[in-house]
What does this fold into?
Amino acid sequence: MAEAVTQYKDLTLQYDAPSGATFKISTDMPGATMTLRRTIAVDVTVGRQTRTWPLDLVADGGLLEGKMAKYRLESSDVVRLYAGWIRFRRLGVYIDGARGDVWETQELSLL
Amino acid sequence: MAFETVHLFQQVELDTDTEGDMTFEFSTDVPGDALTIKHTEIFNTDRTTPKRRTVNIRLPGTTRGKVYKGRISGAFVCRLFGARVFAKPIGKPEPTGWNWYPLPMEGTAELYSETPLPIEPTAEPYQETTLPIVGTAEEYSQAALPIVPTPEGWTDARLPMPQPGVIPRWVDLALDAIE
It folds into this structure.
């Protein structure tokens, strides 16, 4: 039976980056291997600010998905990271056919 | 536990989003009293654009049974948000008796939740800490200078002169006689 997978909607950071930064998110779906899925260009700021970036794919609007996620922030200059949030929802049934997942009900009967 | 009433199944509806061809199989136990696949259909919502949509799978008119089962398989990713079957008990007059019956499955939350990233929090108010500076006394205090004190009275000191060893006296000198 396919296990529940998390869909990530958007990312919010409260930060101060005089030269900007890059935020990378890796997840394990599809394929069950941690792979870089999103690279976000974090804007240059003057002082502490809060920004939000969508995690939809521009091409087809598909959301970032995975059972696990890893986050990485890189910059060539100073970044003061104060807080961050990510919005998500649990996906009921995710069938990864390439890994042999199937979805199947039990034997059911109607009254 | 299966019940005696045989139901007629008309269609299955899937709320789904696929990335390729997936196969849906519908099994019932009538005829034959054993669960066998009565209908197989390939469906695909296509992922060129956001394609969560409802897929209707029409079942053959003879699809019936007391027990039924659904199965989805394939070589691609499929996200299943809901599934239900349209059925009615055999024997009830048309058009009554037809109802939608949801297939049991894990639901997907309609609203997004928020979770914080694992970032060390920054203290909001500034805090005070003392620097390692030795404090300055408010009042002056006295300290003696390193000067050797001058004694009040005089003391004798011998001059550094050598002492004569013999006391001098007059002596006659031998002079030549005068002729």
